[in-house]
Every structure is written in C-alpha cells, then in structure tokens.
Amino acid sequence: MKRALYYCSRLIDRQLHHTAGGYDSLIKVNSIWLMYGCAKYKQGAVNSYRVAEKKLQRALRHCRDTYDLSNILLIYTNEEYDENNTDFQNLIVVLFTNQLSAEKKIEILRKQYHIEVTKKMEEDLNDMCNISMYHERVGLTKGIQVGELKALTTSVKRLLEHQLSIEEAFALLGIEKEMQTKICKQLTTAYIKEMKSNRS
Fold first, then answer.
1. In what order do the strands lie in the sheet with 70-76?
2. What pLDDT, in 10s, does the model give residues 160-181?
3. Are 25 and 19 in contact (CB under 8 A)?
4. Exposed (0-12), middle (13-18) or buried (19+): which is 7, by Cβ within 10 Å?
5. Of the candidates 26, 125, 189, 194, which lies 20 to 30 Å from 70 by C-alpha distance?
6. Taking the C-alpha atoms of 163, 76, 148 and 7 in order, what is their torsion angle to the nearest 10 degrees?
7. Where are the extended beta strands (E) located within the chain?
C-alpha cells in the first residue's frame, strides 16, 4: 500500500515539473495494482483508496477536483482459473497467470469471453506471459543466466515503450536492486548500438 502511495505521489510530482500551469494544471492519477500470490483470505478482494473531504467544523465544501488527485485500486488476484466463470477477477487470472500458454489464453478470450483478439493483442499476451514467468523468479539475484537477463531486459524495454518509467517497470516486475543495475547496463549498451547503427 505504501509503495502504491509513493508511486502516485511521484506521478503527481512529475506533472508539476513538466507542465507550465503550476498546481492548477495537476490532473488525477489512477494507479492499478495486481496483487499476485496473496494469502487465500485476500484472494478475490478489490480495494479502492482515494482522498476524501471530511468537514470537521462548518459546512465548507471544496470542489473534488482540487483535492482528489489520486485513486489506487488493489486487485487481489485469485490463484486458479475457472472455466465456468466469466467475471472480471477470473479474466485477470486468464491474462496474468503463467499456468496458461498464450495460445490457450487467446482461445479462452475468444470462446469464454467472446473477445475479438487482434494481432496486436496476441503480441501483448505473449509479452504478458513472459512477465508472469519472470515475476515468480523475484529474488534470484545469484547465478542469473544470460538468457534470463535478456528476457527480463526485453520485458522492461517493452514496458518503457508503453510509457512507464524504468522505476515503474522494475516495480511491476518485482526486480531486485542487483538485477536492476544489470538491466540498466543492458539497456544502455543496446541504446549505444542503436545509435551507432543509425549513424552508419
């Protein structure tokens, strides 16, 4: 919860430094967190947190837009996919579990949820499968193989392309500090190679 509050605060702060309108230009930040591997009693819960006005003395009311600048949504995912369930929580399991292949997920989306899956969605599902697989490997900072480092770097790069900051990408993937340093080096090397290639 504190991490979610921290990242919302950072996103609000970033607006202030990149817009000319000052405090009046700040817009609301919505932050959605998928809570994997939570305790059984938490699974299926969805909690929302926002700033609310409480009048302690006199009936003075401010416009909500002036203070309600963040909304945090915590989704405590279920563990198992239910082939007979079509609610939102089960859809989250389908999308983010690593127990189902990308091909199986596409089949479920089409048949169980009647969703038209485009080529772009297929590519994104493949990426999410990679993210799910490596999310479970959090903490393995010793003996990391080159292939694993490359896959994690690819996942981070993909999230950066979707306008996330590198800190947000690391948080989403649950990447440890030591691995973050290695990934930053990989991204820097890749960027230098790309620049040289563009010049030639």
1. 29-35, 70-76, 46-50
2. 888 888 888 888 887 888 888 8
3. yes
4. buried
5. 125
6. 40
7. 29-35, 46-50, 70-76
Q: Tell me how far the alpha carbon of residue 191 is from its chain's centroid.
A: 23
**Separation in Å, CA 165 to CA 16, 45, 131, 171:** 16, 28, 16, 10
For strands 46-50 and 29-35, give the pairing: unpaired
Strands (DSSP E) contained in 18-177 are 29-35, 46-50, 70-76
- The two most distant CA atoms of the chain are separated, in Å, by 70
Answer yes or no: pTM beyond 0.85.
no
Q: If DSSP codes are grouped into helix, strand and coil, which group holds residue 161?
A: helix
pLDDT over 90 percentage in the chain: 8
**Mean pLDDT, to the nearest integer, of 13-42?**
84
Residue 74 phi/psi, 5° resolution? -105, 120
